[in-house]
Amino acid sequence: MDKMKEVVLEYIVDEYLDEDEDDEVSFDSPLISSGIVDSFSMVSLKRFLENKYSIKLPDEEATPEAFDTVNSICMLVNRYLG
Amino acid sequence: MAFSNSTRGLFADEIKRIKEDGLFKEKRFICSEQDAEIEVEYPEGAAHKKVLNFCANNYLGLSSHPDVIKAAHEGLDTRGYGMSSVRFICGTQDIHRELQDKVSAFLGMEDTLLFPSCMDANSGVFEAILGQEDVIIADRLIHASLVDGIRLCSAEYDTFKHMNMSHLEKKLKLHQEKRTRLVVTDGVFSMDGDLAPLDEMVKLCDAYDAMILVDDSHASGFIGKTGRGTHEHFNVIDSIDLITTTFGKGLGGASGGCVSGRSELIELCRQKARPYLFSNSLAPPIVKGSIKVIDLVSSTTERRDKLEWNTKYFREKMEEAGLNMRPGETPIVPVMLYNAKLANDMARDMYAEGIYVIGFCFPVVPAGKARIRVQISAAHEKEHLDKCVEAFRKVGEKYGILGLGKNEIIEKYGN
Fold first, then answer.
1. Are residue B247 and residue B159 in the same domain, yes or no?
2. What is the ipTM of this complex?
3. Which fold has domain A2-14+28-81?
4. With 70 as the cut, is the pLDDT of residue A81 above it?
5. Are B140 and A38 an interchain contact pair (Cβ–Cβ within 8 Å)?
6. What is the DSSP string of B357-408?
7. How many beta-carbon pairs under 8 angstroms link A with B?
């Protein structure tokens, strides 16, 4: 789980944060509700998770709430990893 | 009646939540023509107040131009009030063709199709030309109407960081297996006033075999040496595949929009774009007024030159006054305040000083980047600009933000 959190966090920093921004993101930082990830660009994160972990996340599960922190994202992914 | 009290209560609760979140949009009534000086009834029921308007998209000051009004009257007199039809049944007049041809010539594109609005153009264009085997790669800060249009399309989509070319390149590489790639951007971004680097984007599109669509709604008529738009500014007119734009901003300010570009893509929009197929034709007075606007902006650069001068002058004076602005060269001037309450309080005080501006905060702009967006017009005279700067100086002094940078404002007010 901790390894997964690190992988997801690294992806989020690389994909969503600008180099000149001084935002710091941790495992429980709000992503959607803080505006770091918006509902339009969330698709990149969903695609990354599906490819990385060879899973299919149903659209109804990929909600802003489920994607709001690295912790909640990893809980969702783990459910689909079985 | 099925609208029971409990049903009513559900909707009332949602309105209450919007108010509690500080996102409620109040009613404001303009009781004059749209212009640099207007009369406003705000709050609702209050006496009319004369204010200077610094929040309209009336970039070229053509909203109430006498020649445009005269042309609209001619349209009314010679072609009637409305078409009572969609375009493809019996809603296309000779003047619709004339406007399309003139827009194509002005923008330097092969063909053009009119829509009831640019919102409709953006809603319809993607679904008409792309399918599941294609991918759309969009800047993260594109206009909401483009986002809606992309979501209505079956093509896969991806996003890249705002104006970040290395990130765009990464995404173009990632999607090379797709049948076609369409890169989507605003020409001028409405909240930041940024100019998309179309020269660099075109190079990447060439290298990775991608088409490019530019929404130039906040550019058409005044960006570029002769006002053709962002593609003229970056000298890439022949390399842009699709432009969507509006007649509701610089180009007259009434309504209507279009998709302009490669003839095959426009033909597909004519055959398949749902807002084109299922919505009424643009009304004759607006078509004739828009033709006059295109004639005006094609024949002289006087208005875009004045707008350019006004913008430069305003930015210089605001900088001297110590306001913290996002740098740029377009007539969209974001005065950065970072804190939502501060932005709204200052906008309210500006109104009391006779300057009509609006505070913008999350989710319209990213969290922590609240601002007052000032929009300059060719209709503004130097004394209007001076009065606006003086009001910002006075209000800025009241809040103690003059001369402060981003971190100092955030330290003082939070974000």
1. yes
2. 0.91
3. 1.10.1200
4. yes
5. yes
6. -EEE-TTTS-TT-EEEEEE--TT--HHHHHHHHHHHHHHHHHTT-TT--HHH
7. 24
